[in-house]
Amino acid sequence: GKEQSGFVQSIGFEMYCKILEEAVEEMRRGVEVEAETVEEKLVPGRPTDPKLDVDFDLLIPADYIPYELERITIYHRLVNFTAVEQIENLKEELIDRFGQYPPEVELFLMAIELKILAGKLFAERIIVNERKIKLIFDQAVEKEDVFFGLYMPRMMEQALAKVRFLNQKNLGVEFEAKGKNKQERMRFAINLLHYILAES
Predict the structure, then answer these.
(1) pTM to 2 decimals?
(2) For the ranges 21-25, 55-59, 113-117, 130-134, which has the lowest average pLDDT?
(3) Which of 50, 64, 97, 123 has the most CB atoms lying inside 10 A of its own CB?
(4) Are strands 51-54 and 123-128 parallel, antiparallel or unpaired?
(5) Res 138: pLDDT
(6) Are 122 and 49 in contact (CB under 8 A)?
(7) Residues 72, 28: contact at Cβ < 8 Å?
(8) Which of 74-78, 96-100, 158-162, 165-169 has the highest mean pLDDT?
(9) Sorted alphabetically, which SUPFAM superfamilies does this protein's record hold (predicted)?
(10) Residue in 52, 45, 57, 54 with CA at minimum distance from that of residue 81
(11) Are 63 and 104 in contact (CB under 8 A)?
């Protein structure tokens, strides 16, 4: 648990995911996994694959799922999810197989949901911390009518929303974070993105 947490912190979540994906591929050495890897580049229903930046470690504790291969397999599935429904199904599966999951796993699942939603908004990166929720958008967003016709107006409805261009090319939007703890802040961010996407 502590060693895994330190490892994630030292190399970052994105790199950790890449290492995990490679480990799963090496362990399975199956055609099916190779096919999944190729398909990752073109995921229907998620226009971008944003980087996620949060102020806590994302991990599955070893005392919840003691078998390393099981943990790696679940990590691999999570980072390749493209729909919120997949997360809901995994929640049921985890409870069935391993019992009620701890707060660390809940945060991980929330982070993946946030990443999926941010991808639907054409985000290149999403940052969530105690003070702010920040979305940095892919340059291709200028070609998306739905972004300026629906998503941007809904963002601008939010109190204290700040919109600006970053590096003279990427559009960024910043919101004030709300919540007394990590779970509340993540839930607030998820609900906000659902609203912007007109899913709530």
Answers:
(1) 0.75
(2) 21-25
(3) 123
(4) parallel
(5) 79
(6) no
(7) no
(8) 96-100
(9) TRCF domain-like (SSF143517)
(10) 45
(11) no
Tell me what the mean pLDDT of segment 66-87 comes to. 92
Rounded CA separation 34/15 (Å):
19
Residues 19-33: pLDDT tens digits? 666 665 555 554 444
pLDDT exceeds cutoff 80 at 66 = yes
CA dist 86 and 100 (Å) reads 18
**Residues 100, 18: Cα–Cα separation, whole Å:** 27
Strand partners, 54: 128
Cβ 132 vs Cβ 176: under 8 Å: yes
Domain range 2-196, CATH class: alpha beta
Do residues 133 and 127 make contact, with C-beta atoms less than 8 angstroms apart?
yes
Residue 63 burial by Cβ neighbours in a 10 Å radius (0-12, 13-18, 19+): exposed
How far is the C-alpha of 169 from the C-alpha of 138, rounded, in Å?
A: 9
Give the side-chain half-sphere CA count within 13 A for 67. 6
Both structure tokens of 117: 């939603």
Q: 43-47 — which CB contacts under 8 Å span 24+ positions?
A: 43/82, 44/82, 45/82, 45/83, 45/120, 46/82, 46/116, 46/119, 46/120, 47/119, 47/120, 47/122, 47/138, 47/140, 47/144
Q: What tokens were used for 49? A: 């694959």
Q: Name the residue ranges covered by the structural domains of the chain.
A: 2-196
Q: What distance in Å separates the CA atoms of residue 122 and residue 49, rounded to the nearest whole number?
A: 8
